[in-house]
Structure formats: C-alpha cells, structure tokens
Design goal:
With 312 residues, the protein is of the alpha+beta class. It has one domain (5-310): 4-Layer Sandwich (Glutamine Phosphoribosylpyrophosphate, subunit 1, domain 1). Helices cover 36% and strands 23% of the residues. It is built from nine helices and twelve strands. It has helices at residues 22-44, 49-62, 106-116, 124-134, 141-144, 147-164, 232-237, 240-249, 255-269, and strands at 5-13, 82-88, 93-100, 121-123, 180-185, 191-197, 218-220, 224-230, 274-280, 285-286, 293-300, 306-310. The chain has an eight-stranded mixed sheet. Strands 7-8-9-10 form a four-stranded antiparallel sheet. β9 (274-280) and β10 (285-286) form a beta hairpin. 53% of the residues are buried. The structure holds aspartic acid. Residues 11, 67, 177-179, 197, 199-200, 209-211, 217, 229-230, 232, 274 line the site of aspartic acid.
C-alpha cells in the first residue's frame, strides 16, 4: 500500500482536561475525525496532498465549533474578517486571502488565488471582487454569526473597558485560538499545507495575522509542510512556519526538534502562545504546542483517525 499521512489542528489554548462538557468534547473530537477522514479519502484515491489538506480544512471551516469559515470570531466592530492560505510543496506555489467577510470557504479562495492569478495574496475589497468573479460560494453575515463567538466578543469588549480602568489583563495563555489547518504528505511524497482563520476576537479592523502569510503561519516545500495556530503577531515576528524548514535545511535538525524549538523557544521569545502541525517528506509528523492543549489529529494510510486535545 502507498504510504501517506495527514495531520490537522483546530486551534490551541486553555484546553484543560475536565473543563469542557463531555458532549462538547465529543463534538470537537467527531469534527476532527470527520476532517481527517475527508483528507484520507482523497489520499486513498491517489489524490494529492494539496487536495487532501483543502478537503480536511473545508470540513473544519464548515463546522461552527472552530474559528474559521462558519464559526469565525468577531472583530471589534462585530464583523468577520477571515484569512486563509495554501501552499503546494512540490511546485512551491502558494495562494492566500486576507480580510474577507463573505466567502463561505476561505481556503477555496486561497487556492484560486494560487491557481488563477500570478499573485500570492489578495486582501480586502479586491479579494472579495476576485472571489465573486470566480463564482465561489458566498454567505451573508447571518451565516457566520454564531452565538458563542458573539458572547466571546462581548466578554472581551467588556474586559477591555475594565482594563482601561487598571484591571489586569488575563494571561495571554488563557486565550483560545481556534484557527484550523492541515498538512499532508501524499503517496508520491509531495507535501502541502493549508490554514484558515477568523483571526483574533476583538481584533482591529484590517488586522491580518500569521495564517495567510507564507512562511509565518503556513509553509510547504519539498522537505516539510507546516500550519500554525496561536497569537499571530508572535508567529509573524518569529517567521514560525519557515523557521521550522530553515532549522531542518540549514541546521539539519529533525522535524520534531525543529518544530519543538520554534514553539518552545522562538515563538515564546515574542510572547507567543500556540502550536503548529508539521509533516516531512519521510512522513514523520509532529504537533507541538506551548498551551494547555491543542485540537489535533493524525491519520495515516491505515485509515484510523487519531484525535487529541490535551497535553499527554
Ligand atoms: N494565528 C491566528 C491569528 O493570529 C489566530 C489563531 O491561531 O487562532 O490570526
């Protein structure tokens, strides 16, 4: 049988064992499994790693439990501004989209940027116009409005006002990051990565994080594919996704050592909490995080999904 592997994440944060209601935990696990199986189906039929990461990401974008597509968090103004990226390791082609609010599946828009334009990143109104030209499915604000995310915004807005009155900020590690992503190595040994996010709750109008920036939240070449989640600003300054590749390429680090150093050293130096998923061309997988937990999963050719949330 041809060997392949797919890994996914659904965000990292304060995910302490025992604090989530059992049925809520079960829903998250089921959604992660569904995403793994969607990617597996593609790879089993001989599909590419690019097709597989997109298929897995689509499932998570459509699931309101995760901060991407439906379920995206709100900006300070109570709107949605979503970012996404894809990268194909074999060809080094990449596409990304930032600050879009009406596209049902931002990961498909990112892929269209890669395949239909000579550009890597489109943002804002121009990106929305491109998506409409491409005939991709759009959705109105009601589709993206989920009660949980609205409550989260209201809580943070209130907290911010209290902070102006000298209240201490909650530790950044208490934030939950719900970005989704996938990395895969297909039967031919080709790698790909995809990441999709609503960004951070209460973010400023126009703020773009690491997810759609190639080399920061998303990266793939012939050696490694990476998708990150966490405080975007820190991942951006650390060049997190590419730093994994660079440590392997120039420092000859193993996949696990490179990714561990990025999450537990480089990103933390910028005060960044979060994690990443990475796969190399030998189909090794690593899923490090420096938070309490990270929604994550791996599936290999045998088709058995492995899903986890908490620290070992
Ligand atoms: N990294 C994302 C951002 O900063 C957020 C997340 O991972 O949840 O936009």
């Amino acid at each position: 049988m041809t060997e392949f592997v797919l890994a996914i994440h659904g965000g990292a944060g304060t995910l302490k064992r025992g604090t989530m209601a059992p049925e809520q935990e079960q829903q998250h696990r089921a959604a992660l499994e569904q995403a793994l199986l969607a990617g597996h189906a593609v790879l089993q039929q001989g599909g590419s790693s690019l097709d597989a990461v997109v298929a897995a990401t689509l499932v998570l974008e459509d699931c309101p439990l995760f901060n991407a597509g439906r379920g995206s968090v709100f900006t300070h103004e109570g709107l949605h501004e979503m970012d996404a990226a894809v990268m194909d390791g074999q060809t080094r082609r990449a596409g990304a989209i930032a600050g879009i609010s009406q596209v049902r599946n931002p990961v498909l828009a990112a892929r269209r940027v890669m395949e239909q334009t000579g550009h890597v990143l489109l943002c804002g109104a121009g990106a929305e116009a491109f998506v409409r030209d491409q005939g991709l499915d759009t959705a109105d604000a009601a589709y993206f409005h989920t009660p949980l995310r609205w409550e989260q915004l209201l809580a943070v807005r209130e907290t911010t006002q209290a902070i102006l009155d000298h209240t201490e900020l909650k530790a950044p590690s208490e934030t939950k990051f719900g970005t989704v992503g996938a990395v895969a190595c297909d039967g031919a040994g080709n790698l790909a990565a995809a990441t999709s996010t609503g960004g951070l709750t209460n973010k400023r109008y126009g703020r773009v994080g690491d997810s759609p920036i190639i080399g920061q939240g998303t990266y793939a070449d012939t050696q490694v594919a990476v998708s990150a989640t966490g405080m975007g600003e820190a991942f951006m300054k650390a060049m997190a996704a590419y730093d994994v590749a660079a440590r392997m390429k120039y420092g000859h680090a193993s996949l696990a050592d490179a990714a561990h150093a990025v999450i537990h050293d480089s990103v933390l130096q910028f005060g960044g909490y979060g994690g990443l998923i990475a796969v190399d061309h030998q189909r090794n997988v690593t899923l490090p995080f420096n938070t309490e937990g990270m929604y994550r999963g791996v599936i290999r050719s045998d088709g058995r999904p492995h899903v986890d949330i908490y620290r070992a």
